[in-house]
Amino acid sequence: MAGAFAVGRGTAHAGPDGAATAGDVRQAAYAFRGAHQAGIVTPAQDRLHFAAFDVLTDDREELVSLLQRWTLASEQMTAGEPAGDGAVGGDVRLPPDDTGEALDLPASGLTVTFGFGPSLFRDADGRDRFAIADRQPEALRDLPHFPGDVLDPARSGGDLCVQACADDPQVAVHAIRNLARIGFGTVAVRWSQLGFGRTSTTSTSQSTPRNLFGFKDGTANVKAEESAALDEHVWVGSGDDPRADWLAGGSYLVARRINMTIEVWDRQPLGDQEMFVGRTKGAGAPLSGGEEHTAPDFDMPGSNDQPVIPVDAHVRVVHPGQHGGVRMLRRGYNFVDGSDALGGLDAGLFFIAYVRDPATHFVPVQLAMSKSDALVEYLKFTGSALFAVPPGVGPGEHVGQALFT
């Protein structure tokens, strides 16, 4: 995990619970270069701007040039500096390199993480535009259509993705805005998503946050300090796929836009809400007893000859014990995108998970959830995408360089 916790331009200080205090997190800066890309095991920041791009060119060298320019700009911005030659002080007759909205703002823990979608290797017409189809990972295939999916094609897929996370929303938006500007003519934004209030913890120093249903989310998440679990469940191994050796040390990013029927959920009795989730709403403890991190007892009997944790409770359906022990590193965010045509909140969870192999670590869990989870009645899956996230960027390299050499 070299580079994942490298800090410059000041270090965030810990509060009573070990997490960085609100006044200090904006001074944190994470190194862009390292063994793994930042923004995966980095302590989850509070804000997200995620964008998927379509590549407009068929020119391999033009794509590589863009990745080089994106690498340089990302290294500058994650250090708290403007992109290119900056927003001010240049030739007044020309547009500045940087848009300027992050001037005077610190790095705010900004991380920029890149991924490559299946369509980068072969487009919808089967074309190998960049002579990389023979290096497409076997696991990098479009996710299946799950029961209950109502996917919007305009919110799904993409040739490339960029995940920008920060503890200041303006810093995260600035990063995506400037990368999109740099890519003008070579790429176009396919879809994007703003997020707030992280819905998972990626470090033992962080407390468990809550989703918009009001429940703690991500209690059993893989943490940065669990190096063995990261190797088993998150990082792609050197022998996982011989044709995709360039991905060793990287991961797969699953993105799912999940709308919550907030108003319907809010009318459910507290007891029913807790039965659907399988945990108490306050402490987040399993209904079988204990505290948040107590292992659920799925065999404990309840009333009417039924287990105290219902068979369709979320915590039971998605528990690693039901899926051969596989785990994910979740890094999702809440979102509210205004109101829908009926005046209800267009809100929910932008689910992000990093896994070693989506076919074994995500698809079976999502299938079980779609078929058996009581929570699905209050969810609508409207966007879906999968990306291969290359390993970290070494000195003098650009992101994804091993794929193109």
UniProtKB/TrEMBL annotation:
Keywords: Heme, Iron, Metal-binding, Oxidoreductase, Peroxidase, Signal. Binds 1 heme b (iron(II)-protoporphyrin IX) group non-covalently per subunit. PROSITE patterns: DYP_PEROXIDASE. It is found in: Cell envelope. It is an enzyme of class 1 (oxidoreductase). Its main location: other. Its cofactor is heme b. The keyword Oxidoreductase applies. This is Deferrochelatase. GO terms for biological process: iron import into cell. Residues 37-196 form the Dyp-type peroxidase N-terminal domain. GO terms for cellular component: cell envelope; cytosol. PANTHER family: DEFERROCHELATASE, DEFERROCHELATASE/PEROXIDASE. InterPro entries: Dimeric_a/b-barrel, Dyp_perox_C, Dyp_perox_N, Dyp_peroxidase, EfeB/EfeN. Its EC number is 1.11.1.-. The keyword Cell inner membrane does not apply. Involved in the recovery of exogenous heme iron. Extracts iron from heme while preserving the protoporphyrin ring intact. It comes from the Bacteria.
